[in-house]
Design a protein that fits this description.
Radius of gyration: 15 Å
Order of helices and strands: HHHHH
Oligomer: single chain
Structural class: mainly alpha
Strand content: under 5%
Helix content: 55-70%
Number of helices: 5
Distance between the termini: 31 Å
Shape: globular
Amino acid sequence: MSMPDLGEVPHPHSLELREMTEAEKFVVRSLRKWLLGHWDESHHVWRCMLRECRASFGDKDGPKIVISISKIVSTLVKYGNRKIRFHKPCCPCLDTDEYCLVRFITACQNNNGALARALASWLLVDDGIGDFLTAGLQLGTNMKKHALQLPEIALGQTHADNFKSYSLH
């Protein structure tokens, strides 16, 4: 299966968290924290994140946001078509995979189904795409309810192969 053309995307080596909006930073940091919980198998990170989200988004929406993040990560872990790369939660840099996940949630939040599906296809095998899209839509919707609006980007006409150079700190 050939990769759909996802357009021109900034090279992640030059992109840092400080250059992102608060909503984008929230997505990156949340995914990193949840993945850290998977990596070190100490679920205290997850409990802390649930407390933080409840404090920020309330007892109703906080858990919904955490559940969506959990579903996104568990789908990545189970159905990733390769090793997905992330930085540690405190790292100021951004990896290509992290950037694509932010763009995926952005596409979901802004009802750009074609881009969301293309990005999901780049990260996952076909069996995980449906659950991934559902979780992305839920996260985007709940973030928007709390004024965490992800900025839309205009994508050009270059090939998606530009996504494939990445590094890990």
